Amino acid sequence: MDYSSYLRVLLSVWIGLGLGQMVQAFHRLARFKGTVRWDWLPLVWAGFSFLMVVQTWWAYFELLQSPLWVNLFAFLLPLSVFVLLYLLCASALPDTSRADATDVVDLTAFHFGQRLYFFALWAVLLTLALVVSRLVRGSFAWVEDGFRVAGIAAAVALARSDARNVHGVLTVLAVLAMSVYIVLFTLRLP
Question: Which of 34, 51, 59, 190 is the most exposed, fewest CB within 10 Å of its CB?
Fold first, then answer.
């Protein structure tokens, strides 16, 4: 087993843990015996987080080929990316495992109540993605990294704003931007 395969195994474990957390949270939410007040915003961000996890794992297939990651301290950078992805998955939907059937789970209140934490994770994740991109490529990739910079700006705005219309518009723009990014850069392995 070469070193990049060895590293991918550890990162894949983090991916599995994160996706498992999110799927389990959605399953519990869908089967919750109490009242659920549904809202599209956290559901879209959960789906967006799921897509980001898969896209990042896909992209790291190529990125981990770089000999840069042989150094333990350098490897802490991509490992941090995957830990952040796990945290995004774990915080995308509410945990109803301890809720009583008489409780009301309000997805709008959940989304806005934890927006600072959730979108701060996004901002840090995209900042680390910029650093990894710069280290692997040796330069700033204007178009590809431009998406990341725009994502950081949107995440900061979403973390700071409690206006529903701001969240709605930026959520739709984020989904569109991620769709374009995937079409342009990650539909297939190199």
Answer: 190
